[in-house]
Amino acid sequence: SRVPPGTAAVALLLLLLLLLCYRIRCVCNSSDACRQVPFRLLKNFHKIQQRLVRELEKKFSGKDVVLVANRRIMPPPTGGKSNARPRSRTLTAVHDAILDDLVYPTEIVGKRIRYRLDGSKVLKVFLDPKDRNTTEYKLETFAGVYKKLTGKDVVFEFPVQETA
């Protein structure tokens, strides 16, 4: 009566297949899959995310797959204090959370906003260099998915380590 180790993963995979899936045309001209999962189940998905993403990439024949929580943005309150909204529902907080979800399990070690001469903004995100081997091939996918979900330009990089 022993349960196989992949049973929980299979159950979550079946649940995930029922959920919303975006196919996003990315800069690298491959169609990438962005799965939105319910926010309340995000922690459960994080526990098995590496294995799950690997299986989904096999299922979608080598396409890059990313998991993002489904979050809600509330409009700013118009009246007094009675209509206050939580910080987690603001546009800025939701966009930051989407950024964290995209690159999970890699950590973000820095962010910079670059203002160009034409007035446009580009967000530069620096990822943890210890995860370079596992995430470097997905950097264009992360940028394309983030642009599609938020409309903001972003560049993912690894910080340059200087040897002193």
| Largest beta-sheet characterization | 3 strands, mixed
Structural class: alpha/beta
Rounded average pLDDT: 77
Q: Kindly report how far apart the N and C termini lie.
A: 58 Å
Q: What overall geometry do the principal axes of the alpha carbons give?
A: globular
Helix content: 25-40%
Question: Major sheet: order of its strands?
Answer: 1-2-3
Q: In DSSP terms, counting alpha (H) and pi (I) runs of 4 or more, how many helices?
A: 6
Give me the strand/helix succession.
HEEHHEHEEHHE
Return Rg in Å: 18 Å
Query: Total number of β-strand segments?
Result: 6
Give unreliable regions as ranges.
25-29
Outline the structure in words.
A three-stranded mixed beta sheet has the order 1-2-3. It has a three-stranded mixed beta sheet with strand order 4-5-6. The chain has 164 residues and is α/β, with parallel strands linked by helices. It contains six helices and six strands; from the N terminus they run αββααβαββααβ. The chain is globular. 35% of the residues lie in helices and 23% in strands. The longest helix has 13 residues. α4 runs antiparallel to α6. About 3% of the residues have low confidence.
